[in-house]
Design goal:
- It is a multi-pass membrane protein.
- The chain is 52% helix and 20% strand.
- By secondary structure, it is an alpha+beta fold.
- It has two domains: 190 residues, no CATH class; 200 residues, no CATH class.
- The chain starts with a helix and ends with a helix.
Length: 403
């Protein structure tokens, strides 16, 4: 398309229409596209905000790196893996952990829990000590007794609290050996630990049904010896996490998978990303419907400019050039709406980001934040602009050719 059709289309767009209805319909077309573009920018930015929020809160009790077996549930000889990991530059600490499902019983209450066995160094590797409520402490072993630090959800379900009088009973199905059907309890291994504290991470996957115990307690309960379900790694201050992860992976080989914090929560982040783009597609359908206004605008404009079209023909314009004029006209309407909507959308997102205008309806004291998080991504803005421009061009082209 050369410049002449574009200039004529621009003149048509800015010129006063002979009928007020044409101007009103044109304005409605621009507003429809603008509102849809604004909604796209705002929705994508909100999902970006939630992704950033999840990413920022991964570090509280998650290791910087986590080593797992690529096949199977456990690492057979965790000690040898730890030696190999510690030999990598940038690694400050590496500890074995065991995580599995169990049943916790406290008095007459019971609750399925995710039981995690850790070593003493776990407190130095994570922020778990600072997350324990003030009526308890982060304590795993003392004078030969085992202690458990349970999540707030587990404590509420069991109606449990820190204390040294009533032990927490933990059951796990036996992995090996014969079971007497006449005595069902012989199918389970049992361990007892006193509750030393209750922690709250403000992440559902940890706060709902989690319990932390000494690794020796977990190994005995789950019938392990030197095995571990994972080796958790802390890095030196200032170490390049990606480079160290690659080095650890190279040192261990293909039999192991090394995950950083984002990879450890890839399912949660993928779900947010899927929801983001599904919502974007739904808004895309709304954009297509909104673009029908452009069809009516062009149809009326072609009728109104019938005399101008005759003048253009007398000056030598062919059908292709006249078609290009109205394609450009529809495209300009779409782009005007897109730019206006994007500017307003980015402005609203920045206001929300810095002033938190829209609050959560729930009690803010129970949430990490009290208002909807937003984060404007330049790539999202470009995607919105490209989609609106494409839909506007196709709509205009089909209408202009048909008319």
């Amino acid at each position: 398309m050369n410049k002449l059709p574009f200039r004529i289309a621009l003149r048509y767009l800015k010129s006063k229409k002979s009928h007020t209805a044409v101007s009103v319909i044109s304005a409605i077309s621009v507003c429809a596209v603008a509102v849809t573009a604004m909604a796209m920018v705002c929705v994508l930015s909100v999902f970006n905000g939630f992704s950033d929020l999840v990413s920022r809160n991964l570090s509280r009790i998650d290791p910087q790196l986590k080593v797992e077996a690529s096949q199977g549930k456990v690492i057979a000889n965790a000690d040898s893996v730890i030696v190999a990991v510690k030999g990598v530059d940038g690694v400050r600490m590496a500890i074995p952990t065991i995580t599995d499902n169990a049943l916790a019983v406290y008095g007459d209450k019971q609750q399925p829990v995710t039981l995690k066995g850790v070593t003493d160094e776990y407190g130095d590797m994570t922020e778990i000590s600072s997350l324990v409520k003030s009526d308890g402490s982060y304590l795993l072993e003392m004078q030969g007794y085992s202690f458990a630090v349970v999540s707030v959800g587990t404590a509420v379900a069991l109606e449990a609290h820190p204390g040294y009088y009533v032990p927490l009973e933990i059951y796990s199905p036996k992995r090996r050996g014969a079971v007497n059907p006449a005595i069902p309890m012989t199918a389970f291994r049992k361990g007892e630990a006193f509750i030393s504290g209750v922690f709250e991470v403000e992440q559902t996957e940890y706060d709902m049904n989690y319990a932390i115990v000494p690794i020796d307690f977990a190994r005995k309960l789950f019938d392990y010896t030197t095995e571990a379900t994972a080796v958790e790694v802390a890095l030196d201050a200032g170490a390049d996490e990606a480079a160290v992860r690659d080095a650890v992976q190279a040192a261990l080989g293909d039999g192991y998978v090394v995950k950083d914090r984002l990879m450890q929560h890839s399912n949660s982040l993928k779900m947010i990303n899927v929801e983001k783009w599904v919502t974007f597609l739904l808004l895309g359908f709304i954009l297509i419907i909104a673009s029908f206004n452009i069809i009516s605008t062009l149809a009326i404009l072609i009728i109104e400019k019938d005399s101008s079209i005759s003048v253009l023909r007398s000056l030598g314009a062919d059908n292709k050039m006249i078609t290009n004029v109205f394609v450009a006209e529809g495209w300009l309407i779409s782009l005007t709406g897109a730019v206006a909507g994007i500017v307003v959308g980015v402005g609203l997102c920045l206001l929300q980001q810095y002033f938190g205008l829209i609050k959560f309806s729930a009690d803010s004291g129970t949430l990490l934040i009290d208002s909807y998080p937003v984060a404007v991504a330049f790539t999202d803005v470009l995607v919105v602009l490209a989609i609106v421009a494409l839909v506007g061009f196709l709509t205009s082209a089909v209408t202009a050719v048909a008319m």
